[in-house]
Amino acid sequence: MDTRQDLKKAKRLVVKVGSSVICEKDAVSQGRLRALAGQFGQLNRRGYETIIVSSGAVAAGFRKLGLHCRPTTLKLKQVCAAAGQVSLMIAWEKALGAFDLKCAQILLTADDFSDRSRFLNARNTFISLVEMGVVPIVNENDTVAVEELKVGDNDTLGSMVANLTEADLFINLTDLDGLYDSDPRKNKSAKLFLEVPKVDKNVLNLAGTDGGPLGTGGMFTKVRAAGRLADRGLASLIANGHTRDVLIRIMAGEELGTFFKPSKKTRKARKHWLAFAARPKGSIIVDQGAALALVERGKSLLPGGIVDIVGLFDVGDPVSIADRTGTNIGVGLTNYSSPEIKLIKGHTSKYIEKTLGYSHSEEVIHRDNLVIF
Fold first, then answer.
1. Cα 240 to Cα 221: distance, rounded to the nearest angstrom
2. What is the total count of domains within the chain?
3. pTM of the predicted model, to two decimals?
């Protein structure tokens, strides 16, 4: 998917729909949903598999519960999400049903992505649904997710779902036409980028941090999500969900929104999961020599370069790797538990069996199970 014309070859699409696209006066708009549902119906008839990541639950819920503004505390957000999710799904089911589409609700937490077994189980459910012609509608399970374990915003959630389902394209619908060189709400001369070849620090700086009154993510989270998918080799688009037939026109190759090209050099699915979804259970501190070997020479982590560990973890757990200054340099799957590493740290690999009485591997973390940031 290197160009917009390549998008016609896509089969599986993940479309994130922002609150600003589907809500009107703090309530889910059936008219706006119907307009989108009509496009999903056309895509379905043309053979596309579609997955929707829908915002709007909290926005739908706070007015429903008689609140006068969007909640700021986790407790109230969860209450509003629980109440609003019902209204959101009823509205989607009604809108899609008018075009003979069935839908299914999938609520996810960060743990569903960080735990490899749950990650694969979720993937199987998604694949089964789309193969049956059912449209999965995804949201974060805000009602049970605690703050420190939340994905946090639906832009990030959408990119994670695109990776999980091995989608061909991620389309992020918002109330702006795409990424500009400055805020178009403040600068009428702002220029729209039709294409971004690479998401780097300069591009992220352009994206800023401000979100709309109903959403949790601004342009920054959208661009960051596109960058993460580019790293995986997937194309993304940020476009205006209020544009007439926006999805149909995008898939026809029309120059709407900002197109983010996939990277030529990509991470495999396992390493992408490690980099962006896995939640480290602890940390391994390494000396300068080991840090250089990992970062500059692409080596595996050997016990001789380890100076300390933080936390408790078991064999196969994801752990972060940091240097003596505390700088996080990577994440990997460990071949040894934290008690075992305490005994072998600072020694060469040949002493592993002598010290432990056995040897799982010469490496504490093999480079195939290691991602350097």
1. 16
2. 2
3. 0.79
